[in-house]
Recover the amino acids of this structure.
């Protein structure tokens, strides 16, 4: 609430306000009655307590009590009675303010029907009629009233009317003055408000001040302001109805006091009660109605804002949104969605229309994803191609959620579709580049082996030549040993066949392949045997003994055998380089840690991996070789991960390191 | 019938070992075939063959190293280092290390092929 000086100023202002309100209250007594129709000081203090911090309440209550005491002393009330009245007023206001503050948490501009109902219950029912039990008893005991229940009723209704008619006006006024930024109103709105105000005043004058009192006055007159009040509630909300009620209340009281209007049929007390009841039962439902309307307006506004935000997000993300009412087969789709599915702007939409354009190869996957979402009331995510009218396929990333709306209608599928063609193209070209890099790495690896490889390839040729020579020599004998000859020819056949396999393997490794992997069921033992043959010469050159410990029952894996060969070859050649002295022994082992995977271990007896390099070993450009690029292990990891596996390295307890690969086994 | 030379063969490649074995069996008695250098050194000592045929590329202890070890223990041992590829540097090294000959595995190349060399070496001493 700002500085202490400011608080003192507010307290002083509320004191003056309370004093003035007290004088108004007394002025609004019927001339020949002690009954105060309306008690504005109650509204002043209650509003102040609702607006200021609770730690300042004592100051405002004290100020109100002082103002009232001053007024009563000027009016020469008995001191003790005046003090009791002041205590009564304070208790009323404090209890109402406590109740409202505890139970109503919404800000004033966002009052809900629940809040408004609670307000009426606390400020217009419980507090006025509850405290009236005490108020009536001391009024009667001081001799200012004769009938306890009549006093109880008068006090209750008077405070209830005050709470309903005045408190909202004061609170909204304070809100407009201190809290809300001024809003420029359209001229149409100003004109409408002026028209409503003038009509209300004119009708008020006619009904309450120009109509003579008496038995000939029609009770129907009372209903004539109702349309204007409804107009105010519908078009101007709580503020509108509060202001209209205030105008009408003062006109009704003024007219009645001047002896005019429909409330002058019986005794002054009964007339007053009739007027109060009229105000109470008119104001309360209309205010609740205004609150409901405002609530509705706010939720519509929120919906509109939401729709705007969603539209903006959808545009920014090139998303199209759609809703499919499954039972009615009715599809709603945002405008950008139609071209995405290759649909004409005004073509009728149903689910089949989107289905027809989907690439035949992708239909089944999309269908089953959607089907599953519908059955489980869950979500789906799927990528598929859509054939455009010009024959070009576009990639769509679709995401949907099945919702069962409240109210028993059938399930609805809410979805977004995103054009991811550009991403897919980028992915494809990245895959293409990756494949090229891997191919280059393979060729480079084989390049390192050229000398030993040519030697290895000459081996079978030499063997064939030897067998042929032996065959020729056998034929030179006077009685050729045909059994031996046959066996020699069989050996030629076998060696040639196996040499052909190696050449085939080399060709596959050297061949430039596309980005798509050639997936087959691969036996890792075969992969390792082939690599061992290729690297055999290099092992000899490095004086390394290669030992294959291959588990015969190892399960196949789903993969690209050339890529897997590249990984094993890389690991083996790395291991050869790491072994410079001592027993140079390399063990390649296969097995499995669990039934669902296949394990390959490449264990060397080299220098091991420095601890600080273990973390980054598989990152690109990490190498221990002076002339290495450091792509080998990075490519190995990328290949193994594409196969759904993992690769790791650890130093052995004694010496050297072991690289372990796990790959998912074919089920 | 002249006594056939007793030959020890050291060759790691199984296909090659089989082919060489068959070739040698035409004129010699193959007393043993071993797959690596250290086994060759051990077998040469144990079997005392007339000729020891060592492939250059043997795993672990290679052909040249095995040749050095064998001729150091037995300077009279007749060691022939064989290769599938001619290499003058290796030829030079093997002769320095005590080999009696360095020949190509390929048969039928005139008088200096493997079988002729074995016959020549054995004839020198018989």
């Amino acid at each position: 609430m700002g500085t202490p000086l400011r608080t003192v100023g507010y307290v002083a202002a509320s004191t003056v306000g309370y004093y003035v309100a007290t004088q108004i209250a007394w002025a609004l007594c019927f001339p020949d009655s002690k009954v105060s129709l309306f008690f504005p000081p109650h509204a002043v203090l209650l509003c102040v307590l609702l607006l200021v911090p609770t730690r300042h309440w004592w100051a405002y209550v004290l100020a109100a009590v002082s103002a009232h005491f001053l007024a009563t002393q000027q009016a020469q009330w008995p001191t003790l009675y005046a003090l009791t009245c002041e205590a009564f007023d304070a208790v009323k206001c404090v209890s109402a303010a406590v109740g409202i503050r505890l139970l109503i948490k919404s800000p004033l501009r966002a009052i809900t029907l629940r809040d408004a109902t609670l307000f009426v219950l606390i400020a217009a029912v419980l507090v006025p009629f509850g405290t009236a039990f005490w108020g009536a008893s001391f009024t009667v005991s001081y001799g200012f009233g004769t009938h306890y229940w009549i006093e109880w009723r008068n006090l209750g209704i008077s405070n209830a009317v005050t709470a309903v008619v005045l408190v909202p006006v004061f609170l909204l006024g304070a809100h407009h003055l201190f809290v809300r930024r001024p809003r420029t109103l359209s001229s149409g709105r100003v004109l409408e408000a002026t028209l409503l105000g003038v009509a209300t005043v004119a009708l008020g004058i006619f009904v309450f001040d120009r109509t003579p009192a008496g038995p000939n006055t029609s009770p129907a007159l009372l209903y004539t302001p109702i349309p204007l009040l409804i107009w105010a509630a519908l078009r101007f909300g709580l503020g509108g109805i509060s202001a209209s009620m205030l105008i009408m209340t003062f006109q009704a009281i003024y007219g009645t006091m001047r002896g005019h209007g429909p409330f002058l049929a019986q005794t002054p007390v009964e007339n007053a009660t009739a007027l109060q009841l009229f105000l109470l039962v008119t104001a309360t439902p209309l205010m609740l109605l205004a609150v409901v309307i405002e609530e509705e307006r706010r939720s519509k506004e929120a919906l509109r804002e939401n729709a705007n935000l969603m539209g903006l997000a959808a545009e920014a993300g090139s998303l199209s949104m759609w809703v499919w009412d499954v039972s009615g087969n009715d599809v709603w789709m945002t405008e950008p969605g139609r071209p995405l599915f290759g649909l004409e702007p005004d073509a009728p939409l149903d689910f089949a229309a989107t289905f027809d354009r989907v690439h035949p190869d992708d239909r089944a996957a999309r269908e089953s994803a959607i089907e599953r979402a519908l059955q489980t009331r869950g979500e789906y995510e799927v990528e598929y191609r859509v054939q455009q009218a010009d024959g070009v396929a576009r990639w769509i990333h679709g995401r949907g959620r099945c919702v069962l709306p409240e109210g028993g209608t059938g399930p609805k599928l809410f979805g977004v579709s995103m054009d991811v063609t550009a991403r897919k193209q980028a992915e494809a070209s990245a895959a293409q580049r990756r494949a090229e890099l891997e191919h280059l790495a393979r060729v480079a690896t084989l390049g390192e082996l050229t000398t030993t490889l040519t030697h290895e390839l000459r081996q079978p040729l030499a063997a064939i030549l030897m067998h042929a020579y032996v065959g020729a020599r056998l034929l030179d004998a006077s009685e050729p040993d045909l059994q031996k000859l046959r066996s020699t020819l069989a050996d030629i056949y076998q060696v040639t066949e196996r040499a052909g396999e190696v050449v085939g393997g080399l060709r596959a490794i050297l061949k430039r392949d596309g980005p798509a992997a050639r997936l087959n069921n691969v036996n890792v033992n075969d992969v390792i045997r082939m690599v061992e043959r290729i690297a055999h010469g290099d092992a000899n050159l490095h004086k390394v003994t290669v030992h294959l410990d291959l588990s015969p029952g190892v399960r196949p894996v789903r993969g690209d055998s050339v890529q897997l060969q590249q990984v094993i070859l890389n690991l083996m050649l790395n291991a050869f380089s790491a072994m410079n002295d001592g027993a140079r022994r390399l063990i390649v082992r296969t097995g499995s840690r669990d039934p669902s995977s296949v394990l390959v271990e490449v264990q060397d007896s080299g220098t091991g991996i420095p601890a600080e390099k273990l973390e980054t070993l598989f990152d690109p450009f990490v190498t221990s070789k002076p002339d290495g690029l450091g792509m080998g292990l990075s490519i190995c990891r990328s290949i193994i991960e594409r196969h759904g596996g993992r690769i790791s390295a650890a130093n052995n307890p004694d010496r050297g390191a072991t690289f372990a690969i796990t790959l998912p086994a074919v089920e | 019938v002249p006594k056939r030379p007793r030959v020890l063969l050291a060759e790691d490649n199984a296909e090659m070992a089989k082919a060489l074995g068959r070739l040698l069996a035409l004129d010699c008695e193959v007393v043993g075939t071993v797959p690596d250098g250290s086994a060759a050194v051990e077998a040469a000592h144990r079997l005392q063959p007339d000729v020891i045929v060592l492939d250059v590329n043997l795993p672990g202890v290679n052909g040249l190293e095995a040749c050095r070890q064998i001729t150091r223990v037995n300077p009279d041992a007749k060691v022939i280092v064989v290769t599938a590829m001619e290499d003058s540097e290796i030829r030079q090294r093997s002769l320095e290390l005590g080999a009696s000959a360095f020949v190509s595995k390929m048969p039928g190349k005139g008088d200096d092929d493997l079988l002729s060399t074995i016959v020549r070496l054995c004839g020198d001493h018989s």
The longest strand of chain A covers residues 393-403. Chain A has a mean pLDDT of 86. The longest helix of chain A spans residues 268-316. The two ends of chain A are 73 Å apart (CA to CA).
